Amino acid sequence: MSPLFLFLSFVALLSALGVILAKNPVHSVLFLILTFFTLSGHYLLLNAQFLAAVNIIVYAGAIMVLFLFVIMFLNLNEETEPHKPTLAKVAAAIAGGSLLLILVAAMRNINPAGYDPATFDSQIGMVDRLGLVLFQQYALPFELASVLLLAAMVGAVMLGKRETGERNF
Amino acid sequence: MTLPALGWQGLVVLVVFGVSLLIATYSTYAERVIAAFLQDRVGPDRAGPFGLLQPLADAVKLFTKEEFFPAGANRALFVFGPCLAMTTALMSSAVIPFGNVLQFGETVVHLQGIEINVGMLYVFGMVSLGVYGIMIGGWASNNKFSLLGAIRAASQNISYEIAMGLALIAVLMISQTLSLREITIQQASAAPFVWQDIFNWNVMKQPLGFIIFIVCAFAETNRTPFDLPECETELIGGYHTEYSSMKMGLYLFAEYINVFVASAVMSVLYFGGFNFPFQYDLRSWLVSSQGLELVTAQNIITILGLVGLFAKIFGFIFFFMWVRWTLPRFRYDQLMRLGWTILIPLAIFNIMLTGGLITFGVIK
Known about the structure:
heterodimer, A: about 0% strand, B: mainly alpha, two-stranded antiparallel ribbon
């Protein structure tokens, strides 16, 4: 394991813990952004430049900005934070714990094959290779995902649409 | 790669960093000179010849001012905000190809910080991260006006990023690559006529896309007429209302670096980057009539191309400032309407138009 991998993993785990342990929601969001950066670093180590860049643009650049936007708008503070009942906390702990169990069980028998430097394809994970795979081998799932996004978009427009005679500002 | 080559490349990175800072410094001077010119005033002329030492005087003033923390501010994030704004602004200039290759014997120097396969996406990602500095600073100030500025910055950047990305997709359809160096080289042309050469620039194939891109660049760098996050008539100073001394200076500086990077990106994507008309004619003339070696002639072309790219960049920076002192600020709902109901449909139309023109072989 390279020192870079160990460093990135260390920061990733630390910042992921920061997300759930930070009292201030804005700090949580910032820790989450740091987590996404370390994940992008991992993608780069795996030779997936495109995925790393898109992860930064979509998650760190767009979705987290909206998260921060909503949190700033609601002005959530430690004092106004709603306290959840104990039952909900226990249920969340059980659900999260079983998800962890499933993930660990799925990973248990994985045996990384390693790679042969003679036959290793350095272009794997690059954007043109990814495009070829995505539009040939996985064309149907790709198109179905776009239909899903379209449905979400239409739903958002329906919810946000101004009724006749209604003024929003 | 041998160590000397790496050393040269490291030097290029340092020079890019230094040049970004230098240009940002003198942009503050240029802004005042241009404002004075457009408003028929004298402008800064006290510090040094022609007022050229004015940025230095400003820096001394900002560094020696009292550092002030507002009551109830989140101190850590209050300091972190300007740092983040500066960092993200400086990071984007790393992938811009400022020039072609310089060759000295065995050593080959690329006049570019780093060449990555996904350069265009990298710049786009860094631009989208630029808003965090403003948002965090505005929120940490514990001031209503700062918070409003931060929220405006967030929604404005998200809205204009979409149109900007769609404009970039049309460029991508023509260039078929995300690497900024490749895109620049594709815009070169060996044709003997100046018209042919200029027709090869992407702005000729993407006039609509360029207009969309430059409008979005104004919004993403928070420049007038879209400087709503710091709109002083409504929000005092917007996100930097509570800032003083060099933390304030870093915010202003980051804005000028963003203007520089946006100008450089537009020059590279749409105006041929380091290519200039007649470059191949000049090279063959240098080789055949002046008896220079091909490598030396190419080095001369590279340096001229570097100068040409900076001329384009300064032209765009001047345009940014010209617009600032000419157009009044938009109202916030006008800004949103322009972004969502005009620019995004136009950008989608531009993509369909480009696709059609490529299909019918009009452009390639």
